[in-house]
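Retro notes - structure team

What went well: the batch runner handled both jobs without manual restarts.
What didn't: labels got mixed up in the shared folder, which is why I'm recording both outputs here explicitly, each with its sequence directly above its tokens.

Job 1
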Amino acid sequence: MEFRHLGRSGLLVSEISYGNWITHGSQVEEDAALACVRAALDVGITTFDTADVYAGTKAEAVLGRALKGERRAGLEIFTKVYWPTGPGRNDRGLSRKHILESIDGSLSRLGTDYVDLYQAHRFDHSTPLEETMVAFADVVRAGKAHYIGVSEWTADQLREGHALATELRIPFVSSQPQYSMLWRVIEDEVVPTSEELGISQIVWSPIAQGVLTGKYLPGQPPPDGSRATDENGGRFMQRLMSDEVLSRVQQLKPLAEQAGLTMAQLAVAWVLQNTNVASAIVGATRPEQVLDNAKASGVKLDADLLKAIDEILEPVAERDPARTYETSPKERP
């Protein structure tokens, strides 16, 4: 396993990180979840990403039990705050009240005194940004988080948040966007801004919810038990399941074979070619998937291969930077 610095900080994270969105506490049984975490640890993954909202807070608890007994200083544990975790009007968003209450809930479920990275899961248009950043600063100064980051913020939002973090003298080091061969919206604005500010990307869905494994075939129903058949996972995949997208993904198979990689390894290795990406988050329902994905660490793809991938996927790849803003909520959920 290779490691990269998170932003301009001294914190090193594994190039492949393990995330438990959708899976833990919902899609797979706890024994399977624990086996996947064990597989991640066995291949050298030390970075684990979760969020309070995943599986209605159950995912944090499952991850906490899975990591119990591991040397805490040898792990990097990330979580997030924003989406609703209860029925109340203040059980959501990035208000001071919700942040300070949510961090305590997350730490309790994770079974730890601190998280290495605490992230704003989305931008909150209903709360003054200064209020949010001061609350994050208080979390850091209380020793409950070492660093702060965000998820799915635009370049302008990153710039505003970073300016306040600098004024408050707290380490704002990361952005967690969706990024894959099929979803490239961060490349034109978020990545250049992040490079300027010293912020790294921790990317989610590098395999495009499994589409880039090639297991979904045009004109055929999705395989039984796949994410596309799951009520939670399937709703995130509608745009990706068109015959045009699936047909073009099938054209990547010979390229992966020539490179000596599985399709999943090619997809994960591809996002890691971007030097602003510190880590690619992978999820799994089986330990074998973790072992397969981890082999993408350290892989270098040559320029001809990258060009061939671009030529195949260009007609179906989403690149519009406005999509980051468009797909984020404008009001608290």
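Job 2
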Amino acid sequence: MFGSHAAAALAFVDSYGAVAVFVVFALEGALVGKVLPARTLFVAAIVAVGVEAVAVLPVFAAAVVGATVGQSAVFVAVRRFGVDPTSLAVVPVGEGRLDGAGRWFDRWGLPAVAASNAVPGTRGWLAVPTANASSVSAPRFAAASLVGSAAYVGALLAVGIAVALGFGGALGLLGAEMAAL
């Protein structure tokens, strides 16, 4: 019924809860290769905890804060220590993509950071060119990162709730069918 990633994500969330979501999103934010696909883990976490606001809020917060912490760590590492994340094998972003991200930032500024964080596939790329070629402070970068990550995770939350309700409805129908037998 579940794919292997979804099953592993459910087991991970069941064992470690929102901490697992925080760690995976922090690694994704830091441009480090994915331990588990963050989107799959997040949706699995929503399915695991249910759709009540009290249960969903810690998972949502863990994902947003984790992504922001990871991206801020990259920003600070580049700005303060001159780290070049593209030289690391675990970072799946090439120099060419960073050049394109730099042009986005040159044209749009901090709103480009928020917008890129809201779009799958470009999340976190602007941390490096923003740190290298701008006078943006770390707190302002973190705020823009947080806004974009909240939009991204909000969209994932909608998907997670739809999946959770879909599974719940399907399980309810299955239960009614089994009871009728």
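One thing worth noting from job 2: Helices lie at 4-16, 18-29, 38-49, 53-81, 95-108, 110-117, 127-133, 138-180.
We'll revisit the folder naming next retro.
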